[in-house]
Write a structure and sequence with these properties.
13-stranded antiparallel beta sheet, 21% helix, 253 residues
């Protein structure tokens, strides 16, 4: 009969932990590969340099705004415009500076975003998405197992970027596309958790993008979230760098 010493038990436990971690790492890599294939494949995704979306946004209170967003692979630049009753909220990022024009706060000129707001805006505005850009951004990805989401036994992956921002991604087991993401970050020193749900994926130049997006704080209901419905999307539209740059302040009279 084999007698296990305390040292041998520790060794066995260490081997089991290592084996389980390796298995989960393999599972994570496999799911990333399946997600990439589901989106359209590496070549088609890399061939998209810009995406221009137009549609509508509904904010809490059922206020409806016309919405447009332009994303560029170069510098990970982004800009979105939301308009209601002749007033347009503009947010932009040129790869270095995040800025906004918010007429709803009485401002007509551009102001710089805070460092936290700039990072949050830039992180959420990528063509590839958080999961597929993880390696390039130095983020780690871990497989967390399965979890039910509204009757769907999803795969869960945790993406943690070098600054500590965490995304828990829920993949549909049939399509391997994201259907939910829970994002945790610090904004102005406070922990903020945001839930985003994705649906209605459509092909744009051979790559699938979500056309229905609903987002809000953890615990919020649909009526307390922002809802975006994309009506059209075009890829590889020529876009000037100036679109993303902070506008110059108007000259003094």
């Amino acid at each position: 009969m084999r007698v296990f010493t305390a040292r041998s038990l520790v060794t066995v436990a260490a081997v089991l932990v290592f084996t389980m971690r390796a298995a989960r790492a393999d599972e994570a890599a496999d799911l990333i590969a399946k997600n990439l294939a589901a989106r359209g494949g590496a070549a088609k995704l890399a061939a998209i340099s810009t995406v221009v979306y137009t549609g509508k946004m509904v904010v809490p209170g059922d206020f409806q705004l016309s919405f447009s967003e332009t994303l560029a692979r170069k510098n990970n630049a982004a800009r979105n415009d939301a308009t209601i009753q002749g007033l347009t909220l503009v947010q932009g990022y040129d790869g270095k500076v995040g800025w906004r024009i918010n007429p709803f706060e009485g401002r007509r000129d551009a102001e710089r975003m805070s460092e936290d707001d700039t990072r949050a805006f830039a992180d959420d505005a990528t063509i590839d998405g958080t999961l597929l850009s993880a390696k390039a951004r130095g983020s780690t990805v871990a497989y967390l197992g399965r979890e039910d989401f509204e009757g769907t036994d999803t795969y869960k992956l945790r993406v943690t970027d070098p600054t500590g921002v965490e995304y828990v991604e829920y993949l549909d087991p049939d399509t391997y596309l994201e259907i939910k993401v829970v994002e945790t970050r610090k904004l102005r020193g406070a922990r903020q958790v945001t839930v985003t749900e994705y649906g209605d994926y459509e092909l744009v130049d051979g790559v699938y993008f979500p056309f229905a997006i609903e987002s809000g704080p953890l615990g919020s209901t649909s009526s307390g979230r922002n809802r975006i419905q994309i009506e059209s999307a075009k890829a590889n539209v020529p876009v000037s760098d100036s679109l993303f740059a902070i506008p110059a302040a108007p000259a003094a009279k």
